[in-house]
Structure formats: structure tokens, C-alpha cells
From TrEMBL:
Pfam families: TatC. The gene is tatC. Belongs to the TatC family. One of its GO terms (molecular function) is proton motive force dependent protein transmembrane transporter activity. The lineage of its organism: Bacteria, Bacillati, Actinomycetota, Actinomycetes, Micrococcales. The chain crosses the membrane at residues 14-32, 67-92, 104-125, 145-176, 188-206, 212-232. This is Sec-independent protein translocase protein TatC. It is a multi-pass membrane protein. It comes from Arthrobacter bussei. The Tat system comprises two distinct complexes: a TatABC complex, containing multiple copies of TatA, TatB and TatC subunits, and a separate TatA complex, containing only TatA subunits. Substrates initially bind to the TatABC complex, which probably triggers association of the separate TatA complex to form the active translocon.
Length: 261
């Protein structure tokens, strides 16, 4: 494809993804109140279980509407994840062979659960993260937290975990199209471990060690699994290329029949 066709293809894929997110946002609008109540539960628990004063407050007149839009868009991204993940992969698959495309269908099967697993893991650690961070509040003070600031923290945490769990799958996808080999990744495993830990430290908005640990350990496991799959794919590709080269050499050495001449 020419560059102009690539840009047109990217535009179409982005447009379809945007429509899916928009439809998911409309659905998220109806789920806003129960989701808001569930995400605010860790703050309520501080009052009920720990006996400390903590509350969520709207600090401006437009804050309730702003929060409604933010939470609805976040839910739209989550609900439409099968669509925009498919559009992302469909933009790459035209460069693959037919057999590789069939193998690549597993991308969607794996990517969507991993993205949702990352969000679910962030959901599990959210109460502990909130409790650890608010424990630094002196006894003579209260936690009167802005709703917009709190939910920006929560949504950023969940999106960071979800996207982080997609990175190993993207790494394997780059190997599928031949942009990176398993050996190249394996040689840089020390740098990979460092970058994963650095990303975990930056992606965990709370800055607490617990959130970083919960994000870094699963990511490292997924990265090393992805490296193993990349090595297997490289071995299979090398065997296929060797067989093709041997077949070409065999046919090149064979005399051309007289009838063909």
C-alpha cells in the first residue's frame, strides 16, 4: 500500500474505533451512578472501618457534570475494548501472510481479557492503595478530597493497569510482523526488567510500593511469557525459511526437461 492508502486505512480504523467508544460512552452514562458508588466505596470505608473523617466533595458547580463525562468516557473505552483492539490489529494484519493471520486472530482472544484483567487488578488494589495513602494523614486533620481529583486518580490507575497488560501482547505482535526478534528482546532482559519497574512506578499514580508491586510482578511474568512465544515463533519462521530455501535450491539444480525447452 502507498503512504496515502495507509493514512486512509488508519483514518477509517480510528473512525470505527471512535464510533465504538461513543456508543460505549452512551451505555456508560446509564451505568454512571452504580459505578460511581462502587469507586467511592474505599473513601466511605475509611469512615466506617477506620473511624477517620474522609469524604468526597464537589468543589465547583460544574464538577458533577465533568465527572459524569469522565466516568462515562472511561466506561465507553472499557465496553468498546473488543472493537478498538480489533481495529488496531486489523490495521497490522494486511502485512501478514494467510497462515499468520489465522494465528494472529488469537491477539483479540488474548488482548481483551488481559486489558480487562489489568483493570480488575487495579480495582482489587484500589482500597488498599487508598488506605495506605490516607494513613499518612495526621490525626488532627481530615481527608476532604475533591471528587474530580480522586476519580482522575482512580481512572488513571485503572487505565494504566489495563494498557500495561497489553504491552506484552503488542510485543508479540511486533514479532509476528518481523519488526523485532525474540533474541533481541532476550539480550535486553535487564533493560526490560528496569523499564517494567520504572513504568510500574510511573503508572501507579499513588506512588506507593504496594501498587507498584502489584503491577510490576504480573507484567514481568507476561513479558517473559511473550519472550518465550517470540523465540518459538522465530524458530518456526527460521525452519520455514530453511525449508523454502532448500526447495528453491533443489529445483534450481534440477535439469529442465526437453519438452519444457
Amino acid at each position: 500500500m502507498a503512504l496515502k492508502e495507509h493514512l486512509r486505512e488508519a483514518r477509517n480504523r480510528l473512525f470505527k474505533s471512535a464510533l465504538a467508544v461513543l456508543a460505549g460512552t452512551v451505555a456508560g452514562f446509564f451505568l454512571y451512578e452504580p459505578v460511581l458508588e462502587a469507586l467511592g466505596a474505599p473513601i466511605v470505608a475509611i469512615n466506617d472501618q477506620d473511624g477517620r473523617t474522609a469524604s468526597l466533595n464537589f468543589d465547583t458547580a460544574a464538577s458533577p457534570f465533568d465527572l459524569l463525562i469522565q466516568v462515562s468516557i472511561f466506561l465507553g473505552v472499557v465496553i468498546s475494548s473488543p472493537v478498538w483492539l480489533y481495529q488496531l490489529w486489523a490495521f497490522i494484519t494486511p502485512g501478514l501472510k494467510t497462515k499468520e493471520r489465522r494465528t494472529a486472530l488469537g491477539f483479540i482472544v488474548v488482548a481483551v481479557p488481559l486489558f480487562l484483567t489489568g483493570i480488575y487488578l487495579a480495582w482489587l488494589i484500589l482500597p488498599n492503595a487508598v488506605r495506605v495513602l490516607t494513613d499518612f494523614t495526621p490525626d488532627q486533620f481530615s481527608n476532604l478530597i475533591s471528587v474530580t481529583v480522586y476519580f482522575a486518580f482512580v481512572l488513571r490507575l485503572m487505565l494504566a493497569f489495563g494498557i500495561a497488560f497489553l504491552l506484552p501482547v503488542v510485543l508479540f505482535g511486533l514479532n509476528m510482523v518481523g519488526l523485532v526478534s525474540g533474541r533481541q528482546i532476550l539480550k535486553a532482559w535487564r533493560i526490560t526488567v528496569f523499564l517494567v519497574c520504572l513504568f510500574a512506578a510511573m503508572a501507579a499514580p499513588g506512588g506507593d510500593a504496594l501498587s507498584m508491586f502489584y503491577l510490576a510482578v504480573p507484567l514481568l511474568l507476561l513479558f517473559f511469557v511473550a519472550i518465550g512465544l517470540c523465540l518459538l515463533n522465530d524458530k518456526r519462521r527460521a525452519s520455514r525459511n530453511a525449508a523454502r530455501d532448500a526447495d528453491v535450491e533443489t529445483h534450481a539444480d534440477r535439469a529442465t526437461p526437453l519438452n519444457d525447452l
